[in-house]
Amino acid sequence: MAKITLGGNPVETSGNLPEIGSTISDFKLVATDLSTKTLEDFKGNNLILNIFPSVNTGICSAAVRQFNTEASELENTKVLCISRDLPFAQDQFCAAEGLENVVMLSDFRTGAFGKDYGLIMINGGFEGLLSRSVIVTDSNGKVLYTEQVPEIAQEPNYKAALDALHS
């Protein structure tokens, strides 16, 4: 269990992020067109998994915008923005913001992604939502970098996440 904070108040997650050097687990997430996406759909690409509670909060939307900007300059890399928001809300956000370089995915149907990756906040005001974290993998799914953001109101370390792809 990771121990993080929300507004300075202690929150625990359901587990821990994958270990550096391990291979990420397969997943079934819902795209904005309501299709199911799995790890196989992104095979052969480096991945940046930008995971957050809700696109309707300031920090979450800032992170999506930042990774959208950075992703436009990356080759062979997909940025997957994952939350438990409904796909309709994710799609509306991207349309309103003009975001085209990220893939929005939702864990709303089963919550299995959050459970499998240990990311569900199990107490606090955002209980049941995914904690803010980043997982970076190479094109074979090997974990190169992880960050469990210690305070939900903080942005992730974009530079460290992007640097992991160049090391």
TrEMBL record:
Keyword field: Antioxidant, Disulfide bond, Oxidoreductase, Peroxidase, Redox-active center
Domain Thioredoxin: start-end pairs: 18-167
Entry EC no(s): 1.11.1.24
Broad EC category: oxidoreductase
GO molecular function, one term: peroxidase activity
Disulfide bonding pattern of the chain: C60-C94
PROSITE patterns in the cross-refs: THIOREDOXIN_2, TPX
Top-rank taxon: Bacteria
Reaction catalysis annotation: a hydroperoxide + [thioredoxin]-dithiol = an alcohol + [thioredoxin]-disulfide + H2O
SUPFAM superfamilies hit by this protein: Thioredoxin-like (SSF52833)
Active site, per annotation: C60
Additional free-text comment from the UniProt record: The active site is a conserved redox-active cysteine residue, the peroxidatic cysteine (C(P)), which makes the nucleophilic attack on the peroxide substrate. The peroxide oxidizes the C(P)-SH to cysteine sulfenic acid (C(P)-SOH), which then reacts with another cysteine residue, the resolving cysteine (C(R)), to form a disulfide bridge. The disulfide is subsequently reduced by an appropriate electron donor to complete the catalytic cycle. In this atypical 2-Cys peroxiredoxin, C(R) is present in the same subunit to form an intramolecular disulfide.
HAMAP family reported in the protein's UniProt record: Tpx
Self-association state and partner proteins as the record states: Homodimer.
Function: Thiol-specific peroxidase that catalyzes the reduction of hydrogen peroxide and organic hydroperoxides to water and alcohols, respectively. Plays a role in cell protection against oxidative stress by detoxifying peroxides.
Family, per entry: Belongs to the peroxiredoxin family. Tpx subfamily.
Entry protein name: Thiol peroxidase
Phylogenetic lineage: Bacteria, Pseudomonadati, Bacteroidota, Flavobacteriia, Flavobacteriales
